[in-house]
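Q: What structure does this chain adopt?
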Amino acid sequence: MHFFASWRFYSCLSFHIACPWNYFDEMRLNPQISPETVAALRAQYQLDRPLPVRYASWMNSVLHGEMGFSFAYNSPVAPLLFLRARNTLLLTITATLIAWGIALPLGIWSAERFERLPDRLLSWVTAALLVIPIWRLL
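A:
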């Protein structure tokens, strides 16, 4: 029961974030674009339908693996997501390996000097770095 409530909440949140609420509203402010063109684009992308109908259609496409269409890039969303996911995964794996490469030898070195000055200093430095917000370290 809790899973379905959470799933429903997060799917609504994702739809709200992914839904192009003001994309064509901003186009209406441009005097070079006629209101008929904006109305035709809204109809073409089915943005003139009621919100619950659009949500149901969006959920159906997401369940079938269709991520939608990006108005900003004028292309399907899936290739854009995969490209960014690949880059994110590369950065995450690299950062994790670097962190382990530093932390593991330091932890072994500190354990060999348990309760001595180097161990205590390293513990204090680690605690201090954990307390300081990340934006202050940059």
